[in-house]
């Protein structure tokens, strides 16, 4: 039987602004990537998200991003590897504080948005992020784009890594995600999304926008919590995974 984790980016509300339907989504996913205040989230939102995840038996991970709330962390910034290291350590520490008060543990770390995509291609940034995670705890799982520089860096340093694929994004022939600047970056049809997910998990392949099949490893499937159809996707994808004899469980399980 195939086994895969179903994760979602959560805790991305800020102050009086509410984003996503995390109370409902947490009933269907197995891992939650909690925003740590740089690209989204605030202390109260972090605390509430941690509590909701614990109540739903969902494993918790840090979701560190670039310090760009206005751009939701999706705009690239020119940063040094040292700055990347410092940002990641800082944000993991913020989430760890709330986990400690709840007597809960952190399962993983998954960079967000532009930081994630930059580290997928930039070996030095990837190494800095992996070192930050390893320095805090070698037991943490580093989540990165399947086959990317980030997962390679994690494996080199001795971290357990999870190769991530996306339910709601299209791919390029080099294995990277289609830029959000393009109109065909997002998948909004549930059937298309499920077909892509099942193929990635069972066949290790995804069809790129160029019509070329790309090899991928699928340890975890991401659903973006801020997506317009995030809840529908989470419900439908989990249902179809089970119907196809694919076990859905957290990375650490």
Structure description:
- The protein is of the alpha/beta class and 253 residues long.
- It has a single domain (2-248), classed as Glycoside hydrolase/deacetylase (TIM Barrel, Alpha-Beta Barrel), CATH 3.20.20.
- The chain is 39% helix and 18% strand.
Outline:
It is globular, with a radius of gyration of 17 Å. 48% of the residues are buried. It contains eight helices and ten strands.
Secondary-structure blueprint:
Blueprint: E1 2-10, H1 22-25, E2 31-35, H2 43-55, E3 59-63, H3 81-101, E4 108-109, H4 113-121, H5 123-136, E5 141-145, H6 149-157, E6 160-166, H7 190-203, E7 205-207, E8 213-215, E9 220-223, H8 230-243, E10 246-248
Parallel strand pairs: 1-2, 1-9, 1-10, 2-3, 3-4, 4-5, 5-6, 6-9
Antiparallel strand pairs: 7-8
Helix pairs in contact: 2-3, 3-5, 4-5, 5-6, 7-8
Pfam families: LamB_YcsF
Keywords: ATP-binding, Hydrolase, Nucleotide-binding
Family: Belongs to the LamB/PxpA family.
In CATH, the topology is named TIM Barrel
The number of helical elements comes to 8
Determine the oligomeric state from the structure.
single chain
Number of spatially distinct domains: 1
Q: Gyration radius, to the nearest Å? A: 17 Å
Percentage of residues assigned to helices: 25-40%
How far do the termini sit from each other?
A: 15 Å
Classified by CATH, the class is Alpha Beta
CATH architecture: Alpha-Beta Barrel
How do the helices and strands follow one another from N- to C-terminus? EHEHEHEHHEHEHEEEHE
- Give the overall silhouette: globular
What characterizes the major β-sheet?
7 strands, parallel, barrel
Q: Reading side by side through the largest sheet, how are the strands ordered?
A: 1-2-3-4-5-6-9
CATH level-4 homologous superfamily: Glycoside hydrolase/deacetylase
Roughly what is the average pLDDT, rounded to an integer?
92
Total strand count, please? 10
Q: What portion of residues belong to β-strands? A: 15-25%
Class per helix and strand makeup? alpha/beta
Low confidence ranges: none
């Amino acid at each position: 039987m195939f086994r895969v984790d179903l994760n979602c980016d959560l805790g991305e509300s800020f102050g009086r602004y509410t984003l996503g339907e995390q109370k409902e989504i947490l009933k269907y996913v197995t891992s939650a990537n909690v925003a740590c205040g740089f690209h989204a989230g605030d202390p109260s939102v972090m605390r509430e998200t941690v509590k909701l995840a614990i109540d739903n038996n969902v494993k918790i991970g840090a979701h560190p991003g670039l310090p760009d709330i206005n751009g939701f962390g999706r705009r690239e910034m020119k940063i040094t590897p040292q700055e990347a290291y410092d940002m990641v350590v800082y944000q993991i520490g913020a989430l760890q504080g709330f986990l400690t008060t709840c007597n809960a543990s952190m399962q993983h770390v998954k960079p967000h948005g532009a930081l994630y995509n930059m580290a997928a291609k930039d070996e030095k940034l990837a190494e800095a992020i992996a070192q930050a995670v390893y320095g805090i705890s070698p037991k943490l799982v580093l989540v990165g784009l399947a086959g990317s520089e980030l997962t390679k860096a994690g494996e080199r340093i001795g971290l357990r890594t999870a190769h991530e694929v996306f339910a709601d994004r299209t791919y390029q022939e080099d294995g990277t995600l289609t830029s959000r600047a393009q109109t065909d970056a997002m998948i909004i049809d549930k059937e298309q999304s499920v077909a892509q997910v099942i193929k990635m998990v069972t066949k290790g392949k995804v069809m790129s926008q160029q019509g070329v099949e790309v090899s991928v490893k699928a340890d975890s499937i991401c659903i973006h919590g801020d997506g317009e159809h995030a809840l529908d996707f989470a419900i439908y994808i989990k249902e179809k995974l089970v119907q196809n004899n694919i076990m859905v469980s957290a990375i650490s399980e």
